[in-house]
TrEMBL record:
Catalytic activity, as annotated: AMP + ATP = 2 ADP
Organism of this sequence: Zea mays
Molecular function in Gene Ontology: AMP kinase activity; ATP binding
Annotated NCBIfam families: adk
SUPFAM superfamilies: P-loop containing nucleoside triphosphate hydrolases
GO cellular component: cytoplasm; mitochondrion
E.C. numbers: 2.7.4.3
Keywords from the UniProt entry: Kinase, Nucleotide-binding, Transferase
Protein name: adenylate kinase
Length: 283
């Protein structure tokens, strides 16, 4: 882990590679075997050592939700760059003020800032004895993907997809409890199917009574900012999808509905067995 963090910084200014075109596969054989093995064996450190996954997906698609559940299930640390940025925003000083200007305008945080925050997080994890990781929100640009490819072996990249109208509604419905910090979503999304396809229903994730009066909205969750974030994401991150397709490491997963349905189908796509631990993760 420390080697990864040091190499990320060392390679940041020099990483240059060529992207080659290739066909994507649903789930590479090596990753499929690894996922199934981890699912059977449970959550020991040996399992965590072998899991090095990353999540891609537009803002609001649910990367944090599914990465966190897999993290708990497999005993692997969940490293979300969005959380790293928010922690930095909460710190006093001029850096947090400059960072706030970027975030509130719906712009992506620069590679240099993200790489620095991630490196620091990996070093802290190594000091705690963490093994393996599930990345959430990194890599987000081609440069980040190239740097990461040069210093560690990502086994699998899970690309979550959701219709844009549902994405916008989910982002606008996000709420956080100002007291406990738990995240919720007040949006109830019911969309007709496209071209004869199945309709989509995403129920709200409502807070318990003790949190109802303490809900706050993120400053950057406005319709204008959300739509700009989606445009920026597609411009910068679609090439990253091609990068991992070329390496046969990309699993494309379309969110079919609410969390219980989607979680079950994601485990099926990963060929992870549905043990008692997994059932409890859906609750």
């Amino acid at each position: 882990m420390a080697g990864v963090s040091r190499a990320i910084r060392a390679c940041a200014a020099t990483s240059q590679r060529t992207l080659v075109a290739a066909s994507a596969v649903a789930l590479p054989k090596e990753a499929r075997v690894k996922a199934a093995t981890v699912g059977r064996r449970g959550r020991g450190p040996e399992d965590g050592r072998r899991v090095q996954w990353a999540f891609l997906g537009c803002p609001g698609v649910g990367k944090g939700t599914y990465a966190s559940r897999l993290s708990q299930l497999l005993g692997v640390p969940h490293i979300a760059t969005g959380d790293l940025v928010r922690d930095a925003l909460a710190s006093p000083g001029p850096f947090s003020k400059k960072l706030a200007e970027i975030v509130n305008q719906g712009k992506l945080v620069s590679d240099e800032i993200i790489i620095n925050l991630l490196s620091r997080r990996l070093e802290e994890g190594e000091e705690k004895g963490e093994l393996g990781f599930i990345l959430d929100g990194f890599p987000r640009t081609m440069r980040q993907a190239e740097i990461l490819e040069g210093v560690t072996n990502i086994d699998l990249v899970i690309n979550l997809k959701l219709r844009e109208e549902a994405l916008v509604a989910r982002c606008l419905g996000r709420r956080m409890c100002s007291q406990c910090g738990e995240n919720f979503n007040v949006a109830s999304i019911d969309i007709e199917g496209e071209n004869g396809g199945a309709p989509m229903y995403l129920p709200p994730l409502l807070p318990p009574p003790q949190c109802e009066s303490k809900l706050i909205t993120r400053a950057d969750d406005t319709e204008e900012v959300v739509k700009n974030r989606l445009r920026v994401y597609h411009d910068l991150t679609e090439p990253v999808e091609g990068f991992y397709k070329a390496r046969q490491k990309l699993l494309e997963f379309n969110i079919p509905g609410g969390i219980p349905e989607s979680w079950r189908k994601l485990l099926e796509a990963l060929n992870i067995e549905d043990s008692d631990n997994m059932r409890s993760a859906v609750a």
